[in-house]
């Protein structure tokens, strides 16, 4: 078997270079080749790619380097740290890769800052503004419904259906704290029933988003 190599540490390295004698090589890829020759029972001779290149397509459609030697059948196998690419796979066959290599950039970890408004992060500012406006609107509607059809209060009751109490009642029910104003009319109860359902959905969504925001680390690249 005629083997073609291209030196790159630690895969293929010259171990002995004596004048007048063939060079001897060592390295990880050479160890793999020795193990294959012992297992399959073949002998081999190796030589270095003449142009010392891995192989890339030329303008006339031919290949140079290690891949070119294989394409022109001047070598049976090629041994080197050769990257597997789609273009090369179209002209030569690769074994299963035994090493993955990638290039990365190291960055200093950004310092963590304490944000006193982190509890507002699960929702956008526009959504918070809509929720605040909804609280005011529902409070105003509750007040108007009770003003048009006043509820019957118990004898000696000190509560009143003022606009302030209506706003406070709506806000208290939104944060699941209840209220003290007795709204007994049917229209008001239907309004508050819809409001409680809305509050339940919003609070559940906020709780889920807040838990995800506090537990999942968001990696933001400082390189743009």
UniProtKB/TrEMBL annotation:
<keyword id="KW-1133">Transmembrane helix</keyword>
<feature type="domain" description="Ionotropic glutamate receptor L-glutamate and glycine-binding">
    <location>
        <begin position="10"/>
        <end position="72"/>
    </location>
</feature>
<keyword id="KW-0812">Transmembrane</keyword>
<dbReference type="GO" id="GO:0045211">
    <property type="term" value="C:postsynaptic membrane"/>
</dbReference>
<keyword id="KW-0770">Synapse</keyword>
<protein>
    <recommendedName>
        <fullName>Glutamate receptor</fullName>
    </recommendedName>
</protein>
<keyword id="KW-0407">Ion channel</keyword>
<feature type="transmembrane region" description="Helical">
    <location>
        <begin position="125"/>
        <end position="145"/>
    </location>
</feature>
<comment type="similarity">
    <text>Belongs to the glutamate-gated ion channel (TC 1.A.10.1) family.</text>
</comment>
<dbReference type="GO" id="GO:0038023">
    <property type="term" value="F:signaling receptor activity"/>
</dbReference>
<dbReference type="InterPro" id="IPR001320">
    <property type="entry name" value="Iontro_rcpt_C"/>
</dbReference>
<dbReference type="InterPro" id="IPR015683">
    <property type="entry name" value="Ionotropic_Glu_rcpt"/>
</dbReference>
<feature type="binding site">
    <location>
        <position position="88"/>
    </location>
    <ligand>
        <name>L-glutamate</name>
    </ligand>
</feature>
<dbReference type="GO" id="GO:0015276">
    <property type="term" value="F:ligand-gated monoatomic ion channel activity"/>
</dbReference>
<feature type="domain" description="Ionotropic glutamate receptor C-terminal">
    <location>
        <begin position="2"/>
        <end position="222"/>
    </location>
</feature>
<dbReference type="Pfam" id="PF10613">
    <property type="entry name" value="Lig_chan-Glu_bd"/>
</dbReference>
<dbReference type="Pfam" id="PF00060">
    <property type="entry name" value="Lig_chan"/>
</dbReference>
<keyword id="KW-1003">Cell membrane</keyword>
<keyword id="KW-0628">Postsynaptic cell membrane</keyword>
<feature type="transmembrane region" description="Helical">
    <location>
        <begin position="194"/>
        <end position="216"/>
    </location>
</feature>
<keyword id="KW-0675">Receptor</keyword>
<dbReference type="InterPro" id="IPR001508">
    <property type="entry name" value="Iono_Glu_rcpt_met"/>
</dbReference>
<dbReference type="InterPro" id="IPR019594">
    <property type="entry name" value="Glu/Gly-bd"/>
</dbReference>
<keyword id="KW-0472">Membrane</keyword>
<feature type="site" description="Crucial to convey clamshell closure to channel opening">
    <location>
        <position position="223"/>
    </location>
</feature>
<keyword id="KW-1071">Ligand-gated ion channel</keyword>
<keyword id="KW-0813">Transport</keyword>
<keyword id="KW-0325">Glycoprotein</keyword>
<comment type="function">
    <text>Receptor for glutamate that functions as a ligand-gated ion channel in the central nervous system and plays an important role in excitatory synaptic transmission. L-glutamate acts as an excitatory neurotransmitter at many synapses in the central nervous system.</text>
</comment>
<keyword id="KW-0406">Ion transport</keyword>
<feature type="binding site">
    <location>
        <position position="83"/>
    </location>
    <ligand>
        <name>L-glutamate</name>
    </ligand>
</feature>
